[in-house]
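Q: Can I borrow your eye for a moment on a structure tokenisation matter? Would you mind producing a protein record, from residues through to fold? Write it directly below this note and I will take it from there.
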Amino acid sequence: MYDRDMKMRFLWMIVLLLGCGSPVLGQSPGWNQFLGPERNGISQETGLMAKWPTQGLDIAWRVNGGVGMSAVAVAQEKAITMWNSEGGQVVTALSMKDGAQLWSSAVAANYENSMGNGPRATPAISGQQVFAYTGEGILVCLDIATGKQQWSKSVVREMSGRPAEYGMACSPLIVDDMVIVTAGGKGKAVVALDRKSGDVRWTAVDGLPGYSSPALLELCGESQIVAFTARGVTGLRPTDGQELWSYPFPTPYDCNTATPIEVDGNVFISAGENHGCVMLSVTKQAAGYAVQEAWASVDVKSVMRNEWQTSILLDGYLYGFDNVGSAGPVTHLTCIEAATGQVVWTKTRFGKGNLVAADGKLWITTMKGELVVVAATPTGYSEIGREKLFSKTRQNASIADGYALVRDDAQVICIKVK
């Protein structure tokens, strides 16, 4: 009996010690696509730092990268992103352990644009496949272990679409056995392709693609693909792309860029260029679906004008960047009550940046190259700390396995935050 008790105590000590140690790589939900596992900008990580380290943030590794606007996807102990290189647009996998390059696969010629060079979209990881969308609209499927290309599809060209003026920014969305992107064209603004073969399964929606990435939302008791294109927002049936409902939301320069998010069965959309935001109520009726505004705040006095950033919903409040003017330099960090659109607090002239949420905090990357952590609370702006770590970037941080990954046009940085 004594030996057995000693063994049990020993085993419990091991369990407790492991629980208090560093996170086990690859065991968390990860950050496998644009805006994280649920495409809402929220990480499920807990136990992250509550106070700013007195000696500054702990950089796990920092490695050279390239020019591009893709964020970092994390899964299976790999950090995967895209950039321009000497060999063209490449999808590159780095080891989460030390940043070592595991593979790099060239998928298209370098993408150049007057608004910034390099690919825009963030890769999506699902199972043993990685899906990446180039600046000109080529969708590729790669093997996650080797980077070997399984198939490539020039979606925009084959759909007779017109590339977005500032480049194709839609990050691929995986739904069951399909991958969904935007392309543009008559009835082809949204395209679903077979994951295995790359064959087109269905197309939907007229018009130009805009810059937003579609999301899979739960509305009216069912899953719907909600796409925010240049013309507005549309709900689609995943199996065949049938249009269920739509709401027009044309924005100057077709700059609908933020991803739609679900708010208690409603849909929140927002755009910059002084356009504004709307909370949509979608209901199912005998004759189909009805859409009406739960509340709206548009034009120059809007409460939230997301330029390229997607707002974050936490406990009934939306936190986001309110960009003043037509791509102007003045940007406020704002918290609004989701149910009413009422402003709760504003940190005026915070500056341009991007944000995600984890462990009750907002993790903000700024255009000045800072990582800023702010308490996610409606009681007021409460900054935990900030540190300059990188160069100018538009990418959000990707939080997984106890680390925050950020990239600019030169490097990928992995920061320990557990």
About this structure: The longest strand covers residues 288-298. The first helix runs from residue 2 to 20. The CA atoms of residues 99 and 185 lie 40 Å apart.
